[in-house]
Amino acid sequence: MRLPVALLIIVLLLLNTLILIGPMMLIALLKLILPGQTLKDACSRAVMWIAETWAELCKATFALLTPTHWDIRCDVPLRQDTSYLVISNHQSWVDIPALVQSFNRKTPYFKFFLKQELIWVPFLGLAFWALDYPFMKRYSKSVLAKHPELRGKDLEITKAACEKFRRMPVTVVNYLEGTRFTPAKHAAQQSPYRNLLKPKSGGIAFVLAALGEQIDALLDVTVVYPDGPPPGFADLLMGRVPRVIVDIRVTPLPDWLWQGDYENDRDFRSRIQRWVSDLWHAKDARIDQLKAEGASR
């Protein structure tokens, strides 16, 4: 019976979180009140160490209590002293543990761009702030139509939020599809890709405009579940995920990607969209290859 094991995993994950969130909150408060950038940066590094420790304990829990084999492949060694941009396909909540398995303590602790409103969520907002997650403010087209003076302000806000990354390396994660893949969404979109939804180039253009000069390489991540349809998190807990393939390709980023105006320059926008489309066609073919390889075993 796997149910008692699944419940044990949940208890251990909760204990891990409850034990470590206290020190994280304390250091976050110290970071808020301590004077001087040196002390604040020391607090940021301490918070990052706690987050990485939390992730390592989660990895150990899954390694001990689930049969899942994490087949992680990378074409070059990863480093913790450089900055990366991660793009990945997205099919399941298991994708998040897959990222943790692949990158924790191998690259800088990964960050997601968050909506500015999330900073007000009790406890989580403070944790996100302590972890130096960049909060972004995006103005809708309707707001910009009424207030054209706000055009470009969202990028200025995000660039200011990312200034701290000049003092320490970072790994920024971007899911280009914007949502998890399902057959229904694939059909509704009439996606030209066999295994992927249509990518959204605006998000990655926004990240590159804010951080491009600080990012040293692209980590092109392809996650494949070779033994069946994408599993849910409950499947992982219940031991129903035999193998997860995480294929990582490290690619240099050309300088032109952050040297244009995506919002107002149609030619530059088209060039970014072609670049993203090429990445996605290559990823689509790679998923077919990895699935075929998995089926042959």
What does this structure look like?
- A 6-stranded mixed beta sheet has the order 1-8-7-2-6-3, sandwiched between helices. Strands 4-5 form a two-stranded parallel sheet.
- It has a single domain, classed as Glycerol-3-phosphate (1)-acyltransferase, CATH 3.40.1130.
- The longest helix has 31 residues, at 3-33.
- Helix 1 (3-33) packs across helix 4 (124-130).
- The protein contains 10 helices and 8 strands.
- It is of the alpha/beta class.
- Helix 4 (124-130) links the parallel strand 4 and strand 5 (135-136).
- The mean pLDDT is 86.
- Helix content is 48%, strand content 13%.
- It has helices at 3-33, 37-65, 95-103, 124-130, 141-146, 153-161, 183-189, 201-211, 233-237, 266-295, and strands at residues 69-74, 84-88, 110-112, 114-115, 135-136, 171-174, 217-224, 243-251.
What is the string of helix and strand elements? HHEEHEEHEHHEHHEHEH
CATH class: Alpha Beta
User: What is the assembly state of the chains in this entry?
Assistant: single chain
User: What is the terminal-to-terminal distance?
Assistant: 27 Å
Number of strands: 8
Q: What share of residues is helical?
A: 40-55%
Report the CATH topology name: Glycerol-3-phosphate (1)-acyltransferase
Q: What is the 3D shape?
A: globular
CATH architectural grouping: 3-Layer(aba) Sandwich
Estimated structural class: alpha/beta
Gyration radius, in Å:
20 Å
Q: Spans of 5+ residues with little confidence (pLDDT < 50)?
A: none
- Describe the biggest sheet? 6 strands, mixed
Summed up, the domain count is 1
Treating each run of at least 4 consecutive H or I residues as one helix, how many helices? 10
Mean pLDDT: 86
Proportion in β-strands: 5-15%
Strand order of the largest sheet: 1-8-7-2-6-3
